[in-house]
Design a protein that fits this description.
Length: 408
């Protein structure tokens, strides 16, 4: 790439994530609130009694009979009929949900009523990732067909479809503008300006599927990990790898890295690996601050707490470890009855939500280690969840083909 081309890409990136642009787009969205009434109706928000769900026991049709299962959910969505791999909540209107799954479709629906608002079609293979833009104006779906499709949230109108990567594993929107990042099985990461779909950069540096990645909270860096046991911190403007760690370093991971998270201050990264360890890293210089070792199997998910120096790791061994990231010691060991699939702290809270192949979702107070809620209702592994801004609502997606809403 020539110097002039690089300057051009950097200018485009700055324009796409400019904060003044974001503010203007939010004002425009507010001016058109009347047009969004069908999708963004808040009148039905209220306490749990208004959700009209199935709290208690629900009948479920099996192959040969009807069985009853304990169901703590207050609402649900059942149109997928195939495994639901990914769910997301609208960043402002938390009752607006998008889910994607093995039916090759995404659906936008309401958490308070279970009503389907629109079906987003066009993929020819499973939808592996869905995500709302930072303002909520757009929603993206990424599929195992290698396609990324972006839609207007309030109408379901298709804005663009982009191709380029192989099977999409994950996506992430820039925290300050309409720039979308996607990682794929072909070892690449792609970045586009949305909703135009204009290509901005491709990131090459891994040699195996890019299992996880994200923009840092300040939007100045991209962090990715891969099955080749590499960790890379990128400059999003230039696609230059500023930091790279590999398995050749005996202190680092020796097996595929499954997950990564960064802290609110954009200074630290936490990686989880199939080798059963998590590594706490300085993302600016790549220094390995600590090796967090309390699991006997693959670490599948990691998360930082926004309000205390805590982090959580979840493993196939059924354990969730809560770590003090200042002393690097385990503060609590929490247990599921089967593999832990995802852990995530609620925003600006010490509460942690976890889901598992044991079919449950659990809410924990990480200060005391107490399990505040154990939610049941799914018939198979819970594959993904999203948490509302105030932390009182969790939406799940499961291998059983359903999405459920749970209230704290």
């Amino acid at each position: 790439m020539s110097a002039s081309e690089q300057d051009h890409y950097e200018e485009e990136f700055d324009d796409a994530v400019d904060e003044e642009y974001l503010v203007e787009s939010e004002v425009a969205e507010e001016e058109h609130d009347d047009e969004n009434e069908d999708f963004m109706d808040d009148e039905e928000e209220g306490d749990q009694d208004e959700y009209g769900g199935f709290h208690g026991v629900r009948e479920v049709e099996g192959d040969d009979s009807v069985m009853e299962i304990v169901d703590d959910s207050v609402q649900g969505f059942f149109d997928h009929k195939e495994p639901v791999y990914t769910v997301a909540m609208h960043p402002k209107e938390n009752d607006i949900i998008v889910s994607g799954g093995g039916d090759d479709k995404s659906h936008i629906w309401r958490a308070d009523t279970g009503e389907k608002l629109v079906t987003l079609e066009g993929h020819t293979d499973s939808v592996s990732s869905v995500a709302f833009s930072v303002s909520g104006e757009y929603v993206a779906s990424g599929g195992m067909d290698g396609k990324v499709r972006v839609w207007k949230t309030n109408t379901g109108e298709l804005c663009t479809q982009v191709d380029g990567p192989d099977e999409i594993i994950w996506m992430d929107w820039h925290p300050k503008g309409n720039v979308l990042l996607a990682g794929a099985t072909d070892s690449t990461i792609w970045m586009w300006a949305m909703p135009s779909g204009k290509f901005m950069n491709i990131f090459n540096g891994h040699a195996a599927p890019v299992t996880a990645g994200q923009f840092t909270a300040d939007g100045k860096h991209i962090v990715t990990v891969a099955e080749d046991a590499t960790f890379i911190v990128w400059d999003p403007k230039s696609a230059v790898a500023n930091v790279k760690l590999t398995g050749a370093d005996g202190r680092f991971h020796s097996e595929p890295i499954i997950c990564v998270s960064t802290d609110k201050e954009s200074n630290l990264a936490l990686t989880g690996s199939a080798d059963g360890t998590a590594k706490l890293l300085n993302l600016h210089n790549g220094n390995i601050i600590a090796s967090l070792e309390n699991h006997s199997d693959s670490v599948e998910s990691v998360s930082f707490c926004d309000v205390l120096p805590l982090a959580a790791t979840g493993s196939v061994d059924g354990k969730v470890s809560v770590w003090d990231i200042q002393t690097h010691r385990v503060r609590h060991t929490l247990k599921h009855d089967d593999a832990v699939i995802k852990v995530q702290f609620a925003s600006n809270s010490v509460n942690l939500v976890t889901c598992s192949a044991d079919r449950t979702v659990r809410l924990w107070d990480t200060r005391s280690g107490e399990c505040l809620k154990k939610w049941m209702g799914h018939q198979d592994a819970v594959l993904d969840f999203a948490i509302s801004n105030n932390g009182d609502t969790v939406v799940t997606g499961s291998d059983d083909g359903t999405c459920l809403i749970f209230k704290a």
